[in-house]
Amino acid sequence: MLRNLMMTSALVLVTACGQSDTDNDKAAEADNGLVYVHAGHLVDVEKGRVLDDQMIVIEGERIVDIKPWTEEAALSGVIDWSGYTVMPGMIDGHSHLLGDIQSEDPMAPLEGTRQVDIDMGIINALKTLKAGFTIVIDVGSYRVFTDVDLRDKINAGEISGPRMMVAGAYITVPGGGGEVIGLDAGVEIPGEFRAGVAANEDEVREKVRYLLDGGVDFIKVIATGAVLTVGTDPGEPEFTEAELRAAVEEAAKDGKYVTAHAHGAEGIKMAVRAGVRSIQHGSLADDEALRMMKEHGTWLVADIYNGDYIKEVGTAQGWPEETMRKNDETTETQREVFSKAVKMGVNIAYGTDSGVYPHGDNAKQMAYMVRYGLTPMQAIQSATIWGAQSMSMEADIGSLKAGKFADMIAVSNDVLEDITVLEHVDGVIKGGKLVR
Length: 436
Hints:
Helices cover 36% and strands 21% of the residues.
């Protein structure tokens, strides 16, 4: 019943958003085909400053100019954000849009269908976009290529959602952190849930090639055990360094990169030496691992809000004792590692593990980024220009600049004085279209 209601809600939300976008576009576009945004304050994330009373000129999907506000813009072509602080749309570097959010039931991923997962993804995508996240890196779904399907629907304009970079599935060892395990004896796991399972170098290359041929944007490897996967140890490596390197080499043939889920220090070091672009979580990194990340330019994407949510909701809902223990063992350690990484100058990109907790709450981690070492400006940069750099996409996204996509958000208060205002975004523009 709940899933049927959610699917119906998805259709209502998408239709409503589509109508709103069309009406807003007609209202905003001036006679010369341009859209003008009057920004009371504009956050320049590249230079780490705030400019007052700016005009952002948009043509089609992209920004064509930014300059001090003048009255040259026709009134019919102005989006009046003169009372707001305007900044680039945010990037969540660790998201799971497909399917339902995390629960205590290990059978949950198997209970729906491919279409149910996508329909839920439609709802999740719209919530995420309206929360001010115009780009997400979706780091894997259990059913192979459901994320590709959702991305393609968004790109085709069929539904509203953030720009998506997708992994297709997890590259994981048999019974590893990317598998659906902890099920009753005799439960058969369909093949679409095991598309990335690989037991040696040759199988890693084969599975990576399969995902690349299926249209993914990058590869996600599960380098260590996971907090939320029963029977795995977050501190223990699951792939060898040679197997991780095989994934990196195969992805590089198509100009693609690899990101590694890695909690434990040894797994992190192996992944860095193998050439991965980023480390997801990094909860148990030691000083050597952080120094290696700094030396290699490897990005840290640490979900430092997530542990509090898991503790509260997992306790209330009766999540497995093992999961709760592992969460306790990694949460504060991860935050200490994050603080140390900031001080050491490790590359930091914003990522939340949304999908474990409700979509649309992605900005709740911002306050944690500041609490554990970043300045408010740096926290914003981690979710904008630094996040774009972590994907080598800074030519198109991550800052407000002529030539880049017109992805931006508006908040009513001074974000540098109170970073939590990002939890309640007042306006969103994606690709020159007013979303809210």
